[in-house]
């Protein structure tokens, strides 16, 4: 009987999968129990080959292959089911192929530009990217090869993604019986979250946050909206490269749904570096009817219905896209239609009907060459958007067409990449500001009710810790940001405290690619004493 889902949450990955999985192995050794799931809160850097590096917005000194390509090629296999969202330092061309989500490697799943899944009955939602008011109301107009501008705007959160997730506030839940979201993921923090935790400690750690905290401008307005609407039990984030915990007690007037869960426990974690708080072990109760079932990654029935009902609003126009003022409640007939489609697909595969919602673990397909250190890895390719058979399969399931993605068409293997196949790349239609893309439906109505258009034009804090280059306009500024990234403080081990059974945090000491100059970290891992840093549910 498996009553709780054991989740390890990680802040910013920055490609350090080997170190993260080694830390998880240590957690399992120390606790004597297996971990069910790893969640990474952005900056995952799913770089398959050198071509992908051209689509990642970081200073040139950090354009390294890291370790993901070994999991993509099959040289290594993730030892635990891994789910991640995108941040602001990603191989954007790779993630754009999987706009709706999908496997980026065996046992490693991308949640999509926004997405909802279920793992062992625990409902997990997420939104990729960071908030920037300049691009919030636009369509998904970017496509490789990216310009210096679109290399940054590609990871900015869009109102359309928030609109889809907001439908969960009035829906019928993952299995048709509850509308509650157990876990919400974002890369940047919800605006104002610092008012619900120890802001004094935060400012002692990051003193240059003071002005933004005092003016309530630190963080994402879009995430703040979703926090108040969805009121998830847990919210995990990264981006600002520090550990911060908070408890948000919601009032009933801030939510459109009725749920007994009116407390959100927020936790932001650091990046994977020596002596930093970058991992957290959390045990989340599973629904009683799932205790006897294996832990599987499954589609969320309501989310699939939302994708279908909002698909006509998905736009690749560069201009502002006007969305409906009111939410579109998912009807029971919509859920039944999706359930029937999933059951039919399950029957065609010959699987047990109880596995109809399962996201097939063997659906992963290499769509780009694997990394060969001695080769150019396709650096002379056309750099255009490629398709994915996983995206094709989902759209076929829901009887939808491509709008911001392109179909996948396999072609003969090309030399120099283990014989892996490449999909012909395609260019998306060039949509000029003020024009509609072909097939885009007329969209009527006024501004979406979420954010005041007169107040959302700023971006979240341009944090030098995160190498956010949105505000960088010269090579000198970029170099200064890179130097700030190198000057990360080393957090000393905390004093021993009482051990709580709700959540446990471990620290790792390892030898990452970007260790601070002059430091000599040991390759061994040294966990700190377990410490309760989130209040138990009773508080």
Automatic annotation (TrEMBL):
Q: Region annotation Disordered: residue ranges?
A: 408-445, 507-539
Q: Where in the cell is it found?
A: Nucleus
- Give the chief site where it resides: nucleus
The superkingdom of the source organism is Eukaryota
What SMART domains is this protein classified in? DBR1 (SM01124)
Keyword presence, Iron = yes
The protein's GO terms of the molecular function aspect are: metal ion binding; RNA lariat debranching enzyme activity
Lariat debranching enzyme C-terminal domain location is 248-404
Q: Does the keyword Transferase apply?
A: no
Q: Which cofactor does it need?
A: Zn(2+); Mn(2+); Fe(2+)
What Pfam families does its record include? DBR1, Metallophos
Q: Record's GO cellular component, any one?
A: nucleus
UniProt feature coiled coil, ranges = none
Q: Which GO terms describe its biological process?
A: mRNA splicing, via spliceosome
Give the UniProt keywords, A-Z. Answer: Hydrolase, Iron, Manganese, Metal-binding, mRNA processing, Nucleus, Zinc
The protein's matches in PANTHER family, at most eight in alphabetical order, are given as: LARIAT DEBRANCHING ENZYME, RNA LARIAT DEBRANCHING ENZYME
Entry similarity comment: Belongs to the lariat debranching enzyme family.
Protein name as it appears in the record? Lariat debranching enzyme
Question: What is the source species?
Answer: Nannochloropsis gaditana
């Amino acid at each position: 009987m498996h009553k709780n889902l054991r989740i390890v949450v990680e802040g910013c990955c920055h490609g350090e999968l080997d170190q993260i999985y080694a830390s998880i192995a240590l957690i399992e050794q120390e606790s004597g129990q297996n971990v069910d799931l790893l969640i990474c809160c952005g900056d995952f850097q799913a770089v398959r080959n050198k071509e992908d590096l051209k689509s990642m917005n970081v200073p040139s000194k950090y354009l390294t292959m890291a370790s993901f390509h070994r999991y993509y090629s099959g040289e290594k296999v993730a030892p635990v089911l891994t789910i991640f969202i995108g941040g602001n330092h990603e191989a954007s061309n790779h993630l754009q192929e999987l706009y709706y989500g999908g496997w980026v490697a065996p046992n490693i799943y991308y949640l999509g530009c926004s997405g909802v899944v279920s793992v062992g009955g625990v409902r997990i939602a997420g939104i990729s990217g960071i908030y920037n008011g300049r691009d919030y109301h636009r369509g998904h107009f970017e496509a490789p090869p990216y310009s210096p501008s679109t290399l940054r705007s590609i990871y900015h959160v869009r109102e359309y993604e928030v609109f889809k997730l907001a439908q969960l506030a009035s829906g019928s839940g993952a299995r048709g019986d509850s509308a509650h979201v157990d876990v919400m993921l974002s890369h940047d923090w919800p605006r104002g979250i610092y008012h619900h935790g120890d802001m004094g400690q935060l400012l002692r750690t990051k003193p240059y946050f003071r002005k933004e905290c005092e003016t309530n401008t630190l963080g994402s307005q879009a995430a703040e909206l979703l926090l108040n609407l969805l009121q998830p039990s847990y919210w995990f984030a990264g981006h600002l490269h520090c550990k911060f915990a908070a408890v948000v007690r919601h009032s009933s007037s801030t939510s459109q749904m009725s749920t007994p869960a009116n407390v959100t426990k927020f936790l932001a974690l650091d990046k994977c570096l020596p002596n930093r708080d970058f991992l957290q072990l959390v045990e989340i109760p599973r629904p009683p009817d799932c205790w006897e079932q294996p832990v599987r990654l499954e589609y969320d029935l309501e989310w699939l219905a939302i994708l279908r009902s909002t698909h006509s609003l998905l736009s690749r126009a560069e201009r502002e896209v006007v969305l409906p003022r009111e939410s579109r409640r998912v009807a029971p007939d919509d859920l039944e239609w999706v359930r029937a489609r999933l059951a039919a697909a399950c029957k065609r595969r010959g699987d047990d009907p109880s596995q109809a919602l399962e996201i097939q673990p063997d659906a992963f397909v290499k769509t780009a060459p694997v990394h060969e250190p001695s080769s150019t890895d396709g650096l002379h390719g056309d750099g255009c958007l490629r398709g994915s058979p996983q995206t094709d399969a989902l759209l076929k399931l829901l009887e939808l067409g491509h709008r911001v993605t392109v179909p996948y068409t396999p072609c003969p293997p090309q030399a120099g990449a283990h014989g892996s196949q490449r999909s012909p790349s395609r260019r998306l239609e060039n949509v000029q500001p003020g024009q509609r893309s072909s097939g885009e439906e007329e969209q009527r109505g006024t501004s979406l009710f979420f954010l005041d258009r007169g107040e959302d034009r700023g971006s979240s804090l341009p944090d030098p810790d995160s190498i956010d280059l949105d505000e960088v306009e010269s090579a000198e500024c970029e170099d200064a940001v890179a130097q700030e990234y190198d000057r990360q403080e080393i957090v000393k081990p905390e004093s021993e405290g009482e051990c709580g059974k709700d959540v446990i945090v471990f620290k790792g000491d390892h030898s990452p690619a970007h260790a601070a100059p002059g430091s000599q970290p040991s390759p061994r891992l040294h966990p700190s004493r377990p410490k309760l840093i989130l209040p138990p549910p009773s508080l």
